[in-house]
TrEMBL record:
Entry annotated with the keyword Acetylation: no
Annotated organism of origin: Pseudoalteromonas phenolica
Stated name of the protein: Short-chain dehydrogenase
Transmembrane portions of the chain: none
Superkingdom: Bacteria
Keyword list, A-Z: Oxidoreductase
PROSITE patterns found in the cross-reference section: ADH_SHORT, PROKAR_LIPOPROTEIN
Record-level GO cellular component terms: membrane
Keyword Oxidoreductase belongs to the record: yes
Amino acid sequence: MSTHSRVVVITGASSGIGEAVALEYAQQGFMVYACGRNQTKLNALSDNSVNITPCTFDLNDQTELKNALPKDLAIDHLILNAGTCEYIDNPKQFDGALFERVIQTNLISVGYCLEAWLKQVKFGGQVGLMSSSAAYVPLTRAEAYGASKAGISYLAKTLSVDLEPQEIGISVIHPGFVKTPLTNKNDFDMPGIIDADDAAKAIFKGMSKGTFDIHFPKGFTWTLKVLSFLPFSLWRPLAKRMIKT
C-alpha cells in the first residue's frame, strides 16, 4: 500500500527518538506533523524534508494543544512520544515536585493529547504510546519515571480493548536504552544501547504492522520481560544490587 498522503502526528519531535521517527516517516512518504516546543529545532527538521510540517506548542498547555493542528486533519498514525526523565536520588527526602513534573509530562499530557486528537484518528488508524522497558520491572531511582511509564503501559492495554470496535489499533512502545540527549545524562552503564535511527525503524515497522508491544533491542527487552515473571521477593534482591552507595 502506498503511504503517499498518509498523515502521522508525532510529539517530542525536536530531538532524540521523536526526531528520528519524524525523519523515518517522512522518508517513507508520510506527511509528518512534527510537534514540540523548540521552534528552531523543528524548523531545522522540516528543512530536511518537504513532508515535515513543524508544530510548536507546549503539550501541558491545553489551549495551545487544542489549537495546534487543523481541526479537519485526518490522522493515520498518532505517536505520543514526548517525555522526560528525572531520578529520585534520595527516597527518604522524596521530591514531590520532581515526581509531579515527570508524571505531568509523561502521563497526564498524553491524556490531553488523546482528548484533543484521538477523535481525528481515522477508522483503521494506529496510535503509538511511548512507554519504556523500565515498566517491565521496578528499578532503583525510577520512582517517578517508572511509575509514569507503567501508567502508559496500562493505558495502552485499556485503550486497545475499548477502541477495538472503532478499529483503531494501539501500540505501546517499550524501548531499551537509546542514544539521545536524555540518555546522555545517565551516569550508569546502559547495556544494549542503540542509535535513535534504529529505534525509529523499529517503531515504524511495528506501527505499520499494528504490533501491540513494540520493544527493542530484543536481547535486552526480552531479558527484562523474562525477569518480570519473577516473584517480587526474588527480583527485589537483584534490584538492590543496582543501588549506588
